[in-house]
């Protein structure tokens, strides 16, 4: 077979750039988180008077609020979205394809609404952090659900499930041995989609002064304040860090998705 | 024997491959001005088996999409305005919301259109000539996509205005850059695939094999493949522009619907904020419908499909 | 071998060498094609056919170095896949090419194109070229490409993998039309394709591209490896097997369904090889899966050694004990081979783990410490090394995946293999090697084999009996020798002609499952069709001992 080892010219190997981007994104985000965690050491006790402090240290301090909130809301939003997709799949097997389609179409329609606008509204009207986290998570969930369901339905049609049934594997075992291991990565990939979305939504709300409370600190809030005051020195560090964090979050989501699509 | 395949033992010398141009006049025939619509209409004179032509006039698909979008776009806007007339504390709330919607539309629509068009062109060009100025711009836009969310640029614009710049051009730029980034990010890899050696490059290889000149190949065989994903990603661009315009209006104190909503939310007035939110939802649907219409107009193959419905 | 002619040939190469990196695709080939000659170049995947055509056309693929001389007159190259810009109306694209080469306006280009379509035998009613290519059937797209070439009228036409992926009868009809045009108009035509794609059929000369050389092709094995042994008694019985899929409810809410398989009766004897022949839409794959109850058919019964398989495979009603034992026993005896073997392996497990899972489940009588030994034996019997068990499915080539699929199928020591196009993704030598392995395994284990394939000759050469299927019905069933030499149904005859590289006597394309004509499904393409064919679906009747045909006019010659 050595003669045919060469793949045909018409089908070259895909470039694994997405994965490298994902890795660098993860590295950047981890570095940001570490720097934010170490920021109190740099700020030498001036954390309460943010505007007097060194702007870089203040921006790093803000990162603690932004990143931890984003992580919380992303986990929540990813779980909600994945649960939504699994619910649709369950409805498909128990009730019928019609019910499954309705649930998925609801998610797809909602993903087309400007849900991010709900976050400042919730910040202004509700005012509690955990409610804000829930609303932020909800803004990301429909997109996660739509993607996760697409992955789920691709997997449900896979030929190897037929092969497993041909080996008389009971459905319970098919689920345990084949479906669950193969679902982990695509569902996780869909879940990471929530991270850039919630980070952006929270920063947007905080930018307008309707996001996280001032005691927690947030990049968006600092950027918004600096913009209103017209202070470029205070503006640059949080804006740069926020842009970097958003890029990293997007790169992670892209990288995980590319890793899943790889054969 | 006419055909002989001999494994000759002559020394191999490197020589240019002899190539002769196909016989006949080489004349470029460019039939499509811009989209498919116009030529589509013209063709029907020559084709006997032509169905009733839905694209004889250019804006027809746009109008049809807009009519389709009435329940999701116009109704929420009307409901938002009506709701604000009923429940809002100020007497002229409905009028100011209507004005605000117009301001928001004026902010988002031109910047989306210009940004997407420029971004698509730059991204596609980056795949054709990566080292040219346009190509570099395209690669820059594609790479910077996630670094530059609309609301952050809006804050930058607000900062610049505080420092002394003029508001209107900055606002439009702040909203069009994310749209351009998004378009370039989608167009660049699609164009690379269309020109590459994978299965998606089949159309370009075929066109070259048939002897068409490079300009026609790029324009009619490669560019449409780069435009298609951009059109598919318009919905995300509309959402980003919406969020950006709300931030921009609020930070620059423009009288848009987004600023109305944020101001109401700041004072904790649900009666002021919720109608504006509903109306903004309607405006998003309107922009989406416009995007679909433009997509249908550019790409006649889509006229019968039901996009975004999954399944 | 006379290289010096009065008039230079349209295609001449002098010691043409193609290199991909440090690998030689073509080694100093001298080639000469005269006007009106048709040359077929065959070769497996990655053998360098595309590079050769690209080099001849003066646009070698990226990364291929060209040395040596090429002289070629005005040419067109129809690239692999036959893709056009997917979203532009086909007529516009065609007119653009014709207009570009001949300097015609749109009207003139379309008129020339209409002549070309006449020569390719496309009826006027089928010319829906205002649609973009992605909304047209593939056969029409290829016909249109060939017609475009005919309209332009180049001195040389190079076609890479022409009409690949079409049904053999449709493909050969188009290729013969193209070759007729080339001979009539004095065009040098070079067809490149895989050996099993039938490009050799209409060609005057055939060269096989092997190990960098252009050589005469090796004729394929025509008969079985070893003489077939007579089969034993019937063990698998299928009666009235039918399959229909539910559709969306109709306008008045009534339930609708699409029947793709209509009441098939079939018996399989021990040690017998039965080949299901048919093209796209014949439901041969559906029948193969129905026999395995994966999923169970919606009508009829499948009985294996006196046990009703469908009752065992249907999920039990609430409260009843599921009949695992019966189903497991049947699954152990009946094993499938899948058309895409790579996709039939779970990407998250190594091949060995999956094989062990099959063994654990189907053969609980084999002790756990003996399993690895059994797996190694099965892999070796299927033509792989035992180390293949440690590999991940994504790391297997298409050929290795096919052999691994065979290993999994024989692991439980089955009595019947049901193979649905098991070599569909393989080409040339790989394909032959896999089929030889399959037949060797069958002979060694005295397995019954059901082989569904669209390749008439290849399927029948190793079979006892053949069933020709069309649109979910059996149209002819006979022993393999009869089908190979003297089939009676016009569809079988067309498939035989196509497999021999001849001209199938069928016009047009197969109708889609949603647009089947009333009466005989073949009547719009059939040379024997008369008015009565529209009124009744022909029943299967016995015309000789063991030979059944479903055609109203099989014994009447075609009407003029």
Walk me through the structure.
The complex is a heterotrimer of chains A (263), B (311) and C (560). Chain A has 263 residues and is mainly alpha-helical. Chain A has one domain: MetI-like fold, CATH 1.10.3720. Chain A is built from ten helices and no strands. Chain A has helices at 17-42, 55-94, 97-111, 118-125, 129-156, 159-166, 171-192, 194-207, 219-229, 232-261. Chain A is elongated, with a radius of gyration of 22 Å. In chain A, 53% of the residues are buried. By secondary structure, chain B is an all-alpha fold. Chain B has a single domain (78-301), classed as MetI-like (MetI-like fold, Orthogonal Bundle). Chain B is 68% helix and 1% strand. Chain B has helices spanning 37-43, 60-68, 70-87, 93-128, 133-144, 150-163, 167-195, 202-209, 214-232, 234-252, 257-266, 270-298, and one strand at 6-7. Chain C is α/β, with parallel strands linked by helices and 560 residues long. Chain C folds into two domains: 11-215, P-loop containing nucleotide triphosphate hydrolases (Rossmann fold), CATH 3.40.50; 234-246 and 254-471, P-loop containing nucleotide triphosphate hydrolases (Rossmann fold). In chain C, strands 15-16-17-12-18-19-21-20 form an eight-stranded mixed beta sheet, with helices on both faces. In chain C, strands 5-6-7-3-8-9 form a six-stranded mixed beta sheet. Chain C has a four-stranded antiparallel beta sheet with strand order 11-10-13-14. In chain C, helix 5 (168-185) crosses helix 15. Chain C is globular and about 75 Å long. The mean pLDDT of chain C is 87. At the B-C interface, strand 1, helix 1, helix 8 and helix 9 of B face strand 1, strand 2, strand 4, strand 5 and helix 2 of C. Strand 1 (6-7) of chain B pairs antiparallel with strand 2 of chain C. Chain A: It is found in: Cell membrane. Chain A: It comes from Azospirillum endophyticum.
């Amino acid at each position: 077979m050595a003669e045919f080892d060469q793949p045909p010219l018409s089908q070259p190997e895909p470039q694994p750039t997405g994965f490298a981007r994902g890795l660098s994104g993860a590295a950047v985000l981890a570095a940001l988180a570490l720097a934010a965690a170490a920021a109190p050491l740099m700020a030498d006790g001036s954390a309460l008077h943010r505007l007097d402090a060194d702007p870089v240290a203040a921006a790093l301090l803000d990162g603690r609020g932004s990143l931890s909130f984003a992580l919380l809301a992303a986990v929540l939003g990813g779980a909600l979205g994945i649960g939504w997709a699994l619910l649709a799949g369950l409805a498909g097997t128990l009730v019928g394809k019609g019910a499954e389609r309705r649930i998925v179409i609801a998610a797809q329609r909602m993903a087309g609404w400007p849900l991010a606008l709900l976050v400042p509204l919730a910040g202004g009207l509700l005012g509690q952090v955990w409610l804000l986290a829930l609303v932020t998570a909800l803004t990301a969930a429909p997109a996660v659900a739509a993607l996760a369901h697409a992955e789920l339905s691709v997997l449900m049609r896979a030929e190897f499930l037929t092969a497993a049934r041909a080996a008389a594997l009971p459905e319970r075992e098919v689920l345990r041995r084949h479906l669950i291991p193969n679902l982990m990565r695509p569902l996780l990939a869909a879940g990471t989609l929530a991270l850039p979305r919630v980070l952006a939504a929270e920063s947007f709300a905080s930018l307008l002064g309707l996001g996280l409370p001032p005691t927690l600190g947030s990049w968006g809030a600092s950027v918004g304040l600096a913009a209103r005051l017209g202070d470029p020195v205070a503006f640059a560090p949080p804006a740069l860090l926020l842009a970097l964090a958003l890029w990293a979050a997007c790169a992670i989501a892209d990288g995980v998705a590319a890793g899943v699509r790889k054969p | 024997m006419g055909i002989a395949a001999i494994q000759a033992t002559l020394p191999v010398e490197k020589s240019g491959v002899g190539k002769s141009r196909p016989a006949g006049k080489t004349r470029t025939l460019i039939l499509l001005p811009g989209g498919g619509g116009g030529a589509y209409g013209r063709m029907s004179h020559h084709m006997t088996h032509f169905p009733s032509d839905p694209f004889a006039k250019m804006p027809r698909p746009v109008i049809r999409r807009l009519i389709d979008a009435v329940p999701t776009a116009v109704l929420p806007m009307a409901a938002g305005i009506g709701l604000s007339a009923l429940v809002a504390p100020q007497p002229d709330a409905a009028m100011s919301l209507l004005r605000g919607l117009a301001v928001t539309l004026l902010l988002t629509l031109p910047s989306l259109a210009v940004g997407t068009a420029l971004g698509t062109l730059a991204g596609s060009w980056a795949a054709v000539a990566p080292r040219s100025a346009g190509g570099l711009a395209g690669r820059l836009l594609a790479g910077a996509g996630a670094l530059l969310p609309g609301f952050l640029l809006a804050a930058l614009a607000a900062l610049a205005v505080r420092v002394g710049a003029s508001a209107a051009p900055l606002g439009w730029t702040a909203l069009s850059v994310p749209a351009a980034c998004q378009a370039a990010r989608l167009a660049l890899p699609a164009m690379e695939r269309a020109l590459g050696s994978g299965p998606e490059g089949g159309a370009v290889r075929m066109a070259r094999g048939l002897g068409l000149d490079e300009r026609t190949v790029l324009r009619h065989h490669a560019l449409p493949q780069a435009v298609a994903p951009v059109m598919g990603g318009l919905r995300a661009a509309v959402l980003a522009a919406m969020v950006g315009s709300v931030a921009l209006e609020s930070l620059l104190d423009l009288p848009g619907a987004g600023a109305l909503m944020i101001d109401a939310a700041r004072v904790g007035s649900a009666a002021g904020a919720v109608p504006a939110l509903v109306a903004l939802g309607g405006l998003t649907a309107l922009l989406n419908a416009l995007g679909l219409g433009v997509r249908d107009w550019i790409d006649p193959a889509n006229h019968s499909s039901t996009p975004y419905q999954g399944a | 071998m006379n290289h010096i002619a009065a008039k230079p040939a349209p295609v001449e190469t002098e010691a043409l060498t193609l290199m991909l990196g440090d690998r030689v695709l073509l080694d100093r080939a001298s080639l000469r094609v005269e006007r009106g000659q048709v040359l077929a170049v065959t070769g497996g995947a990655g053998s360098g056919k595309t590079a050769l055509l690209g080099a001849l056309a003066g646009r070698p693929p990226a990364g291929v170095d060209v040395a040596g001389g090429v002289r070629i007159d005005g040419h067109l190259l129809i690239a692999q896949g036959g893709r056009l810009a997917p979203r532009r109306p086909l007529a516009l694209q065609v007119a653009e090419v014709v207009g570009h080469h001949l300097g015609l306006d749109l009207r003139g280009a379309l008129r020339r194109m209409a002549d070309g379509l006449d020569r390719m035998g496309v009826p006027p009613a089928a010319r829906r070229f205002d649609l973009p290519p992605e909304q047209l059937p593939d056969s029409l797209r290829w016909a249109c490409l060939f017609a475009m070439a005919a309209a332009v009228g180049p001195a040389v036409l190079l076609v890479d993998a022409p009409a690949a992926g079409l049904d053999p009868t449709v493909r050969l009809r188009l290729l013969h039309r193209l070759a007729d045009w080339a001979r009539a108009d004095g065009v040098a035509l070079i067809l490149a394709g895989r050996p099993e794609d039938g490009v050799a059929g209409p060609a005057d000369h055939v060269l096989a591209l092997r190990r960098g050389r252009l050589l005469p092709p090796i004729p394929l094995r025509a008969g079985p490896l070893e003489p077939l042994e007579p089969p034993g008694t019937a063990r698998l019985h299928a009666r009235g097997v039918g399959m229909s899929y539910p559709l969306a409810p109709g306008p008045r809410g009534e339930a609708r369904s699409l029947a793709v398989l209509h009441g098939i009766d079939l018996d399989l004897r021990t040690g017998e090889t039965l080949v299901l022949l048919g093209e796209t839409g014949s439901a041969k794959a559906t029948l193969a899966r129905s026999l395995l109850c994966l999923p169970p058919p919606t009508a009829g019964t499948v009985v294996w050694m006196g046990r009703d398989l469908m009752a065992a495979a249907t999920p039990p009603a609430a409260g009843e004990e599921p009949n695992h034992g019966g189903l497991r026993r049947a699954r152990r005896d009946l094993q499938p081979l899948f058309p895409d073997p790579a996709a039939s392996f779970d990407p998250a497990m190594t091949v060995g783990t999956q094989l062990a899972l099959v063994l654990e489940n189907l053969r609980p009588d084999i002790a756990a410490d003996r399993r690895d030994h059994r797996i190694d034996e099965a892999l070796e019997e299927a033509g792989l090394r035992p180390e293949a068990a440690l590999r991940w499915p994504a790391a297997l080539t298409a050929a290795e995946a096919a052999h691994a699929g065979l290993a999994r199928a024989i692991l439980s020591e089955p009595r019947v293999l049901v193979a649905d196009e098991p070599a569909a993704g393989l080409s040339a030598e790989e394909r032959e090697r896999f089929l030889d392995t399959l037949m060797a395994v069958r002979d060694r284990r005295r397995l019954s084999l059901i082989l569904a394939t669209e390749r008439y000759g290849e399927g029948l050469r190793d079979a006892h009996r053949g069933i020709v299927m069309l649109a979910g019905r059996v149209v002819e069933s006979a022993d393999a020798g009869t089908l190979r030499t003297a089939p009676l149904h016009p569809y079988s005859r067309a498939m035989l002609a196509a497999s021999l590289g001849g001209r199938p006597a069928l016009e047009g394309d197969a109708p889609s499952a949603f647009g089947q004509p009333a009466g005989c499904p073949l009547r719009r393409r059939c040379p024997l069709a008369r008015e009565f064919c529209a009124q009744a679906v022909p029943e299967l009747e016995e015309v000789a001992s063991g030979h059944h045909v479903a055609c109203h006019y099989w014994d009447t010659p075609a009407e003029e």
